[in-house]
Amino acid sequence: MISQINMKRFYSSPVKSIPKLMSLILLFINVYKLQTQKPDCNFNDTNGYFYHWAFDGDNRNFDFELTNSTSSEIKSKITNYENQRGDGETNTISNNGFPQTHIYPDSIFNLFIKMTYEGIVYDFSYIVYDTKPEFTAKIVT
Predict the structure, then answer these.
(1) Looking at residue 102, which CATH number applies to its domain?
(2) Which of 18, 31, 35, 128 could staple 109 via S-S, CB 3.0–4.6 A?
């Protein structure tokens, strides 16, 4: 009887330890992610502000140009970028794929850039404005 109990412990113990091992591995991965800092990436609009005001009736589209002025040291560790433009269009970009141009219609869009840096995915988000300014005039006499 004693030998059967010892045999059960021997055979059941490795099977029970697999979930514990997986939990430890996942914990290690999460701790590693917490210790790594988000890279200092610099995405810009050529015009500088991620907005465009169409002042005349002929200029109805926003010719947006996304640039990447991230340092070459950081760029060398980035494997790819996923650009979610906010208007339903998504594309994958390499480091030498910048600048990216896109025509936005009148509206406000959320631009999301996911990039993989040293195997970890980081998110950057921007608001892109393509709006017409509204002016209220008051005549003072």
Answers:
(1) 2.60.40.10
(2) 128
Residue type, 83: N
CA 3 to chain centre: 58
Asked if 66 and 100 count as a contact pair (C-beta separation under 8 A), the reply is yes
Is residue 86, in this structure, part of any structural domain at all?
yes
Residues 52, 31 share a domain: no
Q: What is the pTM of this model?
A: 0.61
Task: Please give the Cα distance from 18 to 26 (Å, whole number).
Answer: 12
pLDDT at 115: 92
- Do 52 and 20 lie in a common domain? no
